[in-house]
Amino acid sequence: RSAGRAGNWSLTLAGVFPCFHVIPSVSNIVPESCLLIVVGLLVGGLIKGVGEKPPILKSDIFFLFLLPPIILDAGYFLPLRPFTENLGTILIFAVVGTLWNAFFLGGLMYAVCQLGGPGLNHIGLLANLLFGSIISAVDPVAVLAVFEEIHINELLHILVFGESLLNDAVTVVLYHLFEEFANFEQVTILDIILGFLSFFVVSLGGVLVGVIYGVIAAFTSRFTSRIRVIEPLFVFLYSYMAYLSAELFHLSGIMALIAAGVVMRPYVEANISHKSHTTIKYFLKMWSSVSETLIFIFLGVSTVAGHHYWNWTFVISTLFFCLIARVLGVLVLTWFINKFRIVKLTPKDQFIIAYGGLRGAIAFSLGYLLDYEHFSMRDMFLTAIITVIFFTVFVQGMTIRPLVDLLAVKKKQETKRSINEEIHTQFLDHLLTGIEDICGHYGHHHWKDKLNRFNKKYVKKCLIAGERSKEPQLIAFYHKMEMKQAIELVESGGIGKIPSAVSTVSIQNINPQTLPLERVIPALSKDKEEEIRKILRTNLQKTRQRLRSYNRHTLVADPYEEAWNQMLLRRQKARQLEQKMNNYLTVPAHRVDSPTMSRARIGSDPLAYEPKEDSENLPIITIDPASPQSPESVDLMSEEPKGCSGLPPSPEEDEEGLVMRVKEPSSPGTDDVFTPGTSDSPSNQRMLRCLSDPGPRPEPEEGEPFIPKGQ
Q1: 250, 373, 471, 658: which sits with the fewest CB atoms below 10 Å from its CB?
Q2: Using an 8 Å Cβ cutoff, are 314 and 120 in contact?
């Protein structure tokens, strides 16, 4: 009979899926989860109409066989970067939001039971809090089924889906806590404190169990190079063992599965073959899809086959308070979260988060686990839970797609990120890490960099086999793409059209017998080649003329810059010396006497003002014609003071001042330095010493030119 039932369920699934995906008008309006529940209702009605007892979704079957594949698929392929970047927001929604929903809903339902009449008065506070903890948690199966169809953007998807994954620890703790408290005669403060601490034990204990099994799975995959067939088996086996071990000790099995999948994936994929990776990917997708389908069909069948107790007051109050608690929780928590987020959650995002809080089979299974002896209102709880599940899946699930289009919420980009985007993302990560180190602020970029360094230095060497543990990720990705492209070329028979990106080594490793053809280089004309060389020469010259970047560790003095500075200093010294020589050698002209004074002077001493016949004794300054601009070439050949011959100076001599003559070039056989000349006489040397020290001069005032005008 079991084989016949399995065949019937298989035929049902084989008939439902093609009909749903072939008709686009149905799939665009009705979500897949809604259709599967309708199919379950029809199947359950047919079975009951025939006179048979329809099967009911038992909690053991759900938690042991149907739920683990869905959670493993979600944890193994979890987008780790957006999940870790929004981990704080996800934890606040998952922990604080779930606690708020459970206590708010339980307290209000207790008030409704006290005011609702004789049929609800016997329901106590602990029973209502237990019901609130069951119905408050967002279901990951329902969220996956709806959000993957509407293709919502990555931020909203990871917020809602991450909340549905991590609130399992809160749900499990509250469920077992209130279930135990219901059996106590009196609840003390110590019991409440221990129950609060049990939350950390359940959540962190589940994560620890998952990490241990993930490390064991990664280490085992290091030694499977000779037995590639069983590589996918280790992934499934260790993941399922992590879930069972966590549930055995009443820890969070969902947290254990997520931790195991996240930890093992990067190391397992580095060790296993490409075929094993494909097997794991598609088997997990198929397994989770089958489990999800069976869960929703069994929900419909169990609705028809189960025992129900309908109470309008309790059911309508539950549905209304669920919506109110979700909206208020999202609004208050988002107001608090936006104070610390750089990318704020807009009102549209808040609406989608509040509207996407779907309930599913986890709430139904937890309600089904209640014992009749301690909870006589179990049928009424199950009826209210099924009503909330149907409302959230049908009403909210069917209307969320039109609302997303109406509000113009950003959709998910289906294209994969290019290598250029990956490189720039890593560059920004390193840049932000450096900025945090400089500022002294240890943010998540700093700790992420520390974790990556520890992983690269120690963990990869232990868990990854061969040289792949030392190979950079970009080079490993290039080798993988190169091998994939070479395999496709060989299989397609296009070996003659090999692009330049595929190396001949990869082709020889795949097909050693086939020799690659030589690459045909197109011939270029001489004019074209010369034009290309000219362009390259010009661009390379411009590249060399660019300024070098500054680095205080590798700063080296530029020899050209040093020579230029020395030349500027020499020019400045030459100008200063020229100014000094002009001050020393410039003789101010005497004031011109009036004709009366001139006649009086000549009349008093006619011999003193008689013009000389020779001018040999006049002071002479010779200038070297080789470089007349250089003040160093000035040579004082003969400069005698007026009146040295014993005669008074004549007026012509006073007006003429100093006479400058050109220095005659020396003969080829003489030495300008060691051959004495006419200027080397003792009187001329004394005259040079006198001119070199003209005595103190008054300092020029501020704003006055160094050389006075008229001189």
Answers
A1: 373
A2: yes
